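ENTRY TYPE: paired fold submission
RECORD: A
CONTENT: sequence, then structure tokens
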Amino acid sequence: MILQQLVQDAERIVGDMPPPMYGPTPIKWIIDLDAEGKLIGCIPTTGSDNPKKDKGLVRPAPILSRKRTSGVAAVLLVDKPSYVFGIPADDKRATEKTDAFRKLIAECAAATGNPTLTAVTAFLAWWDSGERTLSRLYQQEVGDGDLFTFRVAGRLPIDDADVRQFWADKSYAADDGASGALAQCLLCGRQTVIPKCLPVPIKGLIGGQSSGIPLVSINADAFESYGLKDGATSGVCMDCGERFGKALNHLLAADDSHLGVGPIAYAFWTRQGGGFAWATMLKQPQPDTVKQLLSSYKSGKEFTAFDQDDFYATALTASGGRAVIRDWLHTTVGTASAQLAHWFARLQQVDEYGQPGKPLGVFLLARSLYRDPKDIEAPVPKALVQAALHGTLLPAWLLTKAVHRSRVEKTVTYPRAALLKTILISQGIWKEDSMTQLEPEETKPGYLCGRLLAVLEEVQRASAEGNLNTTLVDRFYGAASTSPASVFGNLLSDAQPHLAKLRKKRPGTHMALQMRLEEVLLNLTGFPRTLSMQDQALFSLGYYHQRAHDRAAMQARKAAGNADLTTIIEHEEDDHE
């Protein structure tokens, strides 16, 4: 279904759709000829300060219907030095490549009668007539992967309609099925010849080659189905394969229509082009845009005038030399906007300093679950995007990963705290607008134990007066978050000398911390022997909220110029009452 939609929307997505079997191609050198084929010069199309990395001006040009492997396959009028000139000389197949390149041009000239091709043929004959070097054409260094094309009397032959039609016919004929029998295309429904392979490789996937990878790849008998070989297993005609391939590559190349997280890449589009930049909202959401989205959602007003427009999303990964569609979504802009508003409302959380946190993108959320962003697995961003746009529940295994990461790092980051809260809301533990900051009335043991650990850590820090290499959290976070009864008795006993020291040297700080301890312990009738996974998540949030609250209080104290925390605590008590 999603491929059918890409075929239908290809013109709107791409805009100026390239001709059949043409695609955006970086051409670095243009060999300028007169009408008789005499060399005028060789013009570089690079415009950057680093010509070695600049591949040249991107323009519609002939493309191959399949990737080059070990064989020889020439492209009409646009190719590398090994095909155009037979250079480098140490290429053992240089002669075979140049013969194929010239043969293709000669075939096109005979079929079209285009005079520009005669001029190109004359130039290539001149080139072969004696020992030539690329230095005759230009002074700059050329790379083996640079692409050349020709301009004759001010016109590029690749832009001529008859040349374009020849290349399309040639490409389509070259990829006909082995039997040449007609079959029904599964996308357009026409009776036509199904090609051996889809014509446009998918580009821009992590783990895939820069030249692209096919959506269908049959390279062994074991992958065949019902006796169908090669492209017959997919049942997609050449025209449909080209259209959805070009549309998908266009979406994956644009910043505002694609989202890449770990190994997975999402492409977004709408039927009429309405709505906002969906990929940007999930990648780097801007506070003002999110605020407007939330405001329209809460007031019941439409966020976009195109709320009835169809909205589509598809997810792809690279796997074993081919592209795989992992997920797809079809809804409306209005529905997707409402779900996105729910998503950002659930994610609302104070940052590490107790201030309203900035909106979080999918990458930062997924990144919070791993030591290295390279380790991100495809199911994680897939689950996040599904929840953000489709309103699906976040899975329990995501909670396990978040809790485990906090235990390994012995801390809770802002993105992970927001994600923990969102997962718990998704599982029905809390209401959507709760747990955005410290909840003094929350009495769940896991949450209170997390708060208690944060307060005890602050007692230790205050007593050490900065002379502290390892905190009790560094040593006991894992045990405290899984089996509180095994550690908190000793931790409370160990805190008494620190409190005694503070009572003598810093009475104001002692009073504030003692009141915090009493506040937490008041509702904690006992320490659980073990905590479930949900309770461990609550522990992480309790620890995070208490630390963020304490940091905010410390900043408020510094701003007010007070000598200790007494005034801040008094205001906090008044607020709680």
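RECORD: B
CONTENT: sequence, then structure tokens
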Amino acid sequence: MTVVPTRDRLPQVPHVTVPVPHRAGIAPSPAAGGMSLGEITKIIRKRMWVIILSFLITMAVVSAGTLVWWLFWPLYSAWAYLGVEVPKTVVLGGPQQLIPKDVMDREKMYHAKLVLINPVLREAVKREEVKRTSWFARQDDPVATLAEDLSVSPVAEANIIRLSLTGLNKDDLPEIVNAVAESYVSYSNDLMRTGHNQDSLRLQDEKRRQEADLDETRRQASIAKRDFPNLRSSVSVHEIKLQDLTRRLGELEQRLSEASADLAIIEAQEQAGALANSAAVQRYLDADGTVRALEYRKTELVTMRNRLIDKLGPDHRQIADITANLSVTDAELESKRSEGIAMAIRAIKSGAVANRDNYTKQVEEQRGRYNEALNTLRDLQANLTIIEGLAAKEEALTDNIKKIDAGLLELSLLSKGAERSVWIAARADIPKEIYFPRWEVMLPLGGFLGLVIGVVLAFVLELTDTSIKSPSDVSRRVDLPLLGMVPHAEDTDDEIDDLRLAFRTHPGSLFCEAFRQIHTCLLFSGPAGRRRTILIASASPLDGRTTIAVNLAAVTARAGRRVLVVDTNFRQPMIGQLFPQLASEGLSSALVDQANWRDLVAEVEPNFFVMPAGTLPPNPAELLASDQMKTILVEMAAEYDQVLLDSAPCLVVTDAIGLSSMVDGVVMVVRAGVNTHGIVQRTRDMLARVGAHMLGVVLNGVLATPGGYLRKNYETFYEYRQKEQLPAPAAK
């Protein structure tokens, strides 16, 4: 949706107009909130009179109040100063060194807080000079009052504390302040001496405890060193030994892993039947004498049989005997070989198991030696840590004892100078000038307060005013395009009797120029075919619908387009009163088929046609929502370039609501300063629910703020129009 800038200026021509959502029950959301710097500036400029008035009233009240206060109840203030002796740290055999600044500040703050304690104040009010004052006579609880009224503060960059008291009687103030100062000096010096003695006793007790702990630590360290004279060298030797055991254990674990792997391979070959043909088994068989003898005998028998076959033939009896003997030898050889293979497998497997068990035993023995060496090394290291800890503790205790000795020496030196820790550096005198009120403070404060009150009041008035007054209110709160603004009659220099006929009586006025702007915005707001029939609607009566409809129609007609204004307000019709030449019959007669609508139209100016409402019917809402009305609107749109419908107020009656869904677009008229944004939003939502196409808003009766853009624009318009008027021709 096109949104005009939120400034008081004449509207620009929008390029695109997006309708409000048409679904029933869905209302368009308001514009995003937030107040810009320009809007804040505009509110301040608009409500400048409130700010100025608040400033002047506040300044007057503050000035009068300050004068009365200064004349009748002036306040005086008396000051006394306490000097603080910041202690010095004394080091034996060395020069004196000043305590750092942060220590000095803490010392002054310490004394400043102690001044206000009850013992000091009770001692001060007991003094005779205080009891003689009129201030003391008026107090029920002088200690509590003095604690509340007395001001005590350290003075920067100086070893001084300031005591001040403010009151009406300037003669009493010095007596009270000096009494408090004297009371605190006495209290502080007593407290200092007592505190030093207590601190000294505490440090002496602490020194005895530290010395006893140091003796015990030295005794334990001596015993440990006697039991372990060469502890560091023993730790080094055992660390080297542990490294060697670690290396040897690693080697044995590697060999054990290899032996376990060999045994697993042998068992796998045995299960697969491949071990009998292995080289190890074959070597075992080659070493067996019985097998070798049987193999030799078999070889001899085979050789002998082959030789006899060549001599005697294969069928000879000796050949058969040798063959039988050879079979017996083969069977015996095969039996011996099987026995040998089984024995070889058992021997190989037993050897692998024995090898694995041997390495397992060696690893366990080596791991035992490793654990024993590791435990021994840990014990040695633990003892070494104990000895080193005792040495560190001995050193720390020795340092603590030295610090305690230094503290005792410092307390001893400070106790000697405790009488000068706090003293009265300057006594209070009777004040000669009024302390408060001060004109140089009250007047700027009153001016600032007046400005703050004025600005706050201006924003309160602006934020509590919910009426729509400017284009920014339309864009921010209504979320509809602004088609134009019609100025208020008071802002124009033209004397227009009837604003509804301004275009006929004052066509060159600023008022009519605003309608040319609206006509231009409507002309470029969309295709001409989608804005032939336009309903002029508003929320409430007297918003200016008839004024907008008639003047906008006059502008359109003078632009060369045929325009028809139809009075659809069957409640309080106005068109017939503006044009007396119209007939008494009108739209209502056409809707009940008593006349043709074309016969009821009258041309009041070239291209400017008007149809009155006619006789007021008993059922206006039903007639305007009828099919007959739709038919008439279609026929009107076909014969005229523009049809403008003047309607009844939407929130008063529902006549315009039903009619809004039949037209091409709706122009909402908003009376500036009268219609609130809630009323306008409610009207917009009602039209959106029935599917009305919202073209935009015309802001009617806009008042220009003094010094604002609209006021300057109006002045420029009249100056420009006066300059552009041609001089009258000279008489010939």
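NOTES ON RECORD B: The first helix runs from residue 37 to 46. The chain has 24 helices and twelve strands.
STATUS: closed
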